[in-house]
TrEMBL record:
Gene3D superfamilies: 2,3-Dihydroxybiphenyl 1,2-Dioxygenase, domain 1. This is VOC domain-containing protein. It comes from the Bacteria. It comes from Candidatus Niyogibacteria bacterium CG10_big_fil_rev_8_21_14_0_10_46_36. It holds the Pfam family Glyoxalase. Residues 8-126 form the VOC domain. InterPro entries: Glyas_Bleomycin-R_OHBP_Dase, Glyas_Fos-R_dOase_dom, VOC_core.
Length: 126
């Protein structure tokens, strides 16, 4: 069914309490390429073209934005070719591994890690 009113996926938004530290972390860990930035905002692309935005709280945000967007679980799965190398990079740049890599029944390996603000991500290796 092709309905012009169906939503399309926009950027993955990652809340942060320190935009400069987050920018360094995501460039080092995700290989982000910055497209534009402002005082409380960075627009970037991942290596596969995925649009990712890093955002700090500001007067332009919804009420309670920080508590709902910083240090929360991000319902996205990032895929890497080498789990061990990726998680070493996370740790080297200040992130934490909160769920060690495990083999999953459908054939991949999954783990969970956090960034500097405690945002939680799922990562998998096929």
């Amino acid at each position: 069914m092709n309905n012009p009113n169906f939503p399309k996926l926009g950027p993955i938004i990652i809340g942060t309490s320190d935009i400069e530290k987050a920018k360094k972390f995501y460039i080092a860990v995700f290989g982000l390429v910055i497209e534009s930035e402002d005082k409380n905002y960075v627009s970037a692309r991942g290596v596969d073209g995925t649009h990712i935005e890093l955002e700090e709280d500001s007067e332009n945000r919804f009420p309670h934005w920080a508590e709902r967007n910083i240090g929360t679980y991000k319902n996205s799965e990032f895929q890497v070719p080498d789990m061990k190398l990726f998680l070493e990079t996370v740790l080297k740049n200040g992130g934490k591994i909160i769920s060690e890599p495990v083999s999953r029944p459908w054939g991949d390996i999954g783990a969970e890690f956090t960034d500097l603000d405690g945002n939680i991500f799922l990562v998998s290796q096929k």
